[in-house]
TrEMBL record:
Top-rank taxon: Bacteria
Official protein name in the record: U32 family peptidase
One protein family per Pfam: Peptidase_U32
Organism: Selenomonas timonae
Lineage: Bacteria, Bacillati, Bacillota, Negativicutes, Selenomonadales
Amino acid sequence: MLLHRKSVELLAPAGTWDAMTAGIAAGADAVYLGGKHFNMRLHEGDFNFDDERLKAAVDYAHAHNVELYVTLNNLISNEELPALREYLAYLNEIRPDAILVQDFAVLELVHEMGITVPLHTSVMMNTHNEHAIEKLKEYGITRIVVGREMTLSELALFRTRTGIEVEYFMHGDMCISESGQCIHSGVLFGQSGNRGRCMKICRWPFALIDETTGEVLDANSPGPYKLALKDMCMYRSIPALIQAGVYSFKIEGRMRSPEFIARLVSTYRKAIDAYIADPNGYTTDEEGWRTLYDNRVRDYTTTFAFGQPTAVDIGMTGEREPRFFSQAVEEAGFADEVLRAERPIEKENAPSRHLSVRVGTVDAARAAVDAGADTVYVGGEAFRPNRPWKLTDYEDLVRYAAGRARVVVNTPRTTMRRECGELEQFFAALNDIGVDGIMVGNLGTLKLARTLTKLPVQADHSFNIFNHLAITFLKENGLTMATASYELSFQQLRQIVENAVLPVEAVIHGAYESMICDYNFPAMSLPNYSDLAAPELLDRLYAFRDEAGGVHSIRIDQYGRNHLYFAKDLCLYPYLEKFNGLGSYRIEAQDYTADVTAEIVRIYRAALDRLAAGSDGYRTEDFERLTEISPRPLGIGTYRFRQSRNSI
């Protein structure tokens, strides 16, 4: 690869006019910034650009031969769609060089409105496999901000196979969760991290405990901040980034001062130019490194660039944490004044209301069928000590459920190169097993399922459906059902269901995940944790306990990913009469035993049947029984809020 000045783009953040001009003066090739609405940095009132200032910023950047990208990269609810249309029309008029997007509704409106500004995917779209890229190219995407969990070796292969232009976060604040897959702030505070209002639960102190006994396992650890990832810094690895095929070197920091931005940009500018001028003779400029290190906010890490992070990549002491946005609070129980006051969804119900159940074992699947489930979701991630489903397990369950329930195969939410390779073989085998459908968690798996099978395909909650236009996008791509986001309030869910072109499934009961992380938290805290020397420790049940006493189960799947659960399970049993017109009522029973699954399914089956017959679905004794058998306390999650706080 022959390098020249335009081989690499140095991309600077800007939250204010002064920060933008400072980044440009320091040598940025491009800047990215957001308007006053619809972006991922909405906490600070003095930051971001109003419409007039946005146009001036585009003009200023272009006058200095610098490109300018506008972040329209948060999830958008139904009530915000009219304002989104106006904003897109305005952006098309002022002509930034690209728009960064997360929500599928933007892709729909860009096509409908004839918007001609180039589109880049935000990191929040969690793009991590080549099949997703091929799908996004159909919608005019010209650049991908890749998922932060991708190593440089994976990225190089990814870039070669797709030919897409790659943007990579190489300096600044990083999320511990996979992008777009953390809902903790949205459910707990009504301020969604996917909508630009994260309250940074990951910066709370936690104790690692044995979930079964409550024993604290990490009393001698360096500190309690188990999820507090250090800041990304790839300054010492610039050659590796360039040779991996990264085009745009992205600096995080839209809330930083002009002086801070100028220092970062000028330091990286000098190093990048030095490497391009003489790659073979390049060495790290230690004076530049000292400039960065002495002015760091947190300590530094390279996160996943060269492999899976370890404990040294976590700021466990908390001593360099610049700001704590929130502190641990107890999750909502049945604080339901808002929900009880809401009018029911106005959509006609099917004669028999459809009950689906996601299970983790063959025994739980059989129990769900026997108890009256219409659909069982099987497979996908298997949480230890459970083992992944085998082809023979699916075959046996199809025979067992015949004539009584549909069997739909679930797939992992995250499908990197390994998982995609396995899914190709798995989907080929499914054609002969006789299952009734596939549930997918990302665009790449969607493309694979639609290409390799003739089975109906539906979308899981990881698609982050927040408006009815996103469901239109899914229908255009051949899906048969969409699952609503956990972060929606009831009012927002109602607007979607009443306007959607596909049936909408919503989870009404069960254990649910606050985030999914490609980190191994027990391994980071326990010195004797080893799959070689102590494999028995891998099947132990671990949890984090927060300072409010909430116990967050940690479930580890067959790929090593850690799934963190909320301290309370969702329970909407007292409010079922409001949830009219759902395509399916789902129970998340993946973390339940077969006996508990059976009892919960029977209770909900009876309640839904009573509602379908025109009577009251609620029974006090059944609600009390749900509370009694639940492995965790129960609550109503985000339905305590009138809305997930919006962007306008």
